Amino acid sequence: MSPARAQLNILDLVPVVDGGTATDAIASTVDIARHAEKWGYQRYWMAEHHNMRGVASSSTAVLIGHVADHTETIRVGAGGIMLPNHAPYVVAEQFGTLATIHPGRIDLGLGRAPGTDPFTTRALRRNEAAAMNFAGEVEELIGYLGDPDPDAKVRAIPGEGTRVPIWILGSSHGGAQVAAALGLPYSFASHFAPAALMSALEVYRTRFVPSTQPGGLDAPRTMAGVNVMVADTTDEAERLFTSVLQRFHGIVTGRRTALPEPSGDIAGLMAQWSPAERQAVSDMTRVSLVGTADEVRDGLAGFVEATGVDEVIVTCGAHDHEARLRSYELLADAWL
């Protein structure tokens, strides 16, 4: 293990690359998951996004089942399911079924953002006020996955008794408060929204209430997201990372396209943007580690020491599949 002893996981955004297809993206995800299992990563999570040309993980539960079918031991899960988009009962049935097929291997991370634009939110046909009752809907979902109740009017079958582990996800204090109140583990989205990282972790830890409900903890458990790009040389890692920077620039400017090919060097790329755009992209990607395996390992150890997180979940946005594989392999060799 690394000196910091934090568990290492992968968050796969299932990127559709420029010149590629969703079919290619899903095949790439399966290949990376199979390698990650061999290299010693503990969790392989995918995130729900909708109406985005560059992301192929909209049907997250289906994709989790597909990846779990093609792996054997690694935990596979959602990082996460955006609960306001779904009835808690349906999520319980979906993940209860996954846990029945793959016992002991399924994780369910829950977020309260829609993960999309307002037009698509309406197309999902859920009550927009659902996010306001996030804690209540999480508790409802936990109830469906808990011990069977023969007298219950509504039962999740499959689902009841599976006790699928639930994580609360967030990028602000709201999710931290819910996770703390319910005694659940908490994962912070510092790979794209790092501003409140330290304060949210503090809120979670100081307000944590131990819980005996399904998935509940005796003590806080935390995870945080990190962008990584690892290559044999620092220059090559920085060149590959320009794909990630272009993707974030697209988010900032409202032009969400497929994941672009690398473009020159970081300084040259960012010089093409306005000062406001450069600042916005820099703020969003502040928790990013780019370099050789030793450089990224040392940076990750420093991040774990500073935050005190129990687990890190890394995401690599290399355009080329082989470069993405190589990045995860180099990091595993250095960290695990």
From TrEMBL:
Keyword field: Oxidoreductase
UniProt name for this protein: LLM class flavin-dependent oxidoreductase
SUPFAM superfamilies: Bacterial luciferase-like
Family of this protein: To bacterial alkanal monooxygenase alpha and beta chains.
NCBIfam families named among the record's database cross-references: oxido_grp_1
UniProt GO molecular function: oxidoreductase activity
Organism: Terrabacter terrigena
E.C. number(s) listed in UniProt: 1.-.-.-
Phylogenetic classification of the source organism: Bacteria, Bacillati, Actinomycetota, Actinomycetes, Micrococcales
PANTHER family: LUCIFERASE-LIKE MONOOXYGENASE (PTHR30137:SF6)
Domain named Luciferase-like: residues: 19-310
Superkingdom of the organism of origin: Bacteria
InterPro entries assigned: Bact_Lucif_Oxidored (IPR050766), CmoO-like (IPR019949), Luciferase-like_dom (IPR011251), Luciferase-like_sf (IPR036661)
